[in-house]
Give the backbone structure.
Amino acid sequence: MTGLVRKDFYLSVSMFKSYVLVALVFAMLTFAGIYDSSFFVAYVSVMCIMIPVNLFAYDEQARWDKYAAALPGGRRGVVMARYLFTTLVCVGSMVFSILLHLAAGLASGAQAQERMDLLLSGLIPAAYGCLMNAVLLPLLFKFGSQKGRLYLLLALGLGAGLIFGGLTALREMGLSLSQLEFPLAALPAVGLLALIPSYFVALGIFLKKDL
């Protein structure tokens, strides 16, 4: 299974470079005050979702599933490796987002509460990415990347609406993210835990799938 995870990593190297470069551009625009931080948060959420989706497209082009199912790990190894890699992407995105938000806070001389707000806003994208992947991965194993992209568009639209709408609603109510510290801090754990039942659903689908 380790080899399957490495395969996903090697396929994603070029994507990682592109996504990180764009993320750094958005981060600089956020530091300059051109974009609101919620825009960068939404971008990281998209990054968490798009990388696993693109991996499915690459596998289909190479007819990888048929070959991988014949390997010692079998279909179970294919599903487990994809979920493990997705988890690593979400955790890595969360760390990247938190570090950038903290750097923004230090650069701007933010006070303690503002720094906490930035820290919590860095947790939101990875949590949402995990939750959406928990929904999308079984659908991608079932329908493939082409039909799965329809669900992806719905997920991205819903996610953008929830993130921008939620942050705007908090501002209008005069609330800061630090006032919701405990529920927001628990979101990444909820997202990661959601991948567990999702894995078993996807495994059941892939074991029965006709390749």
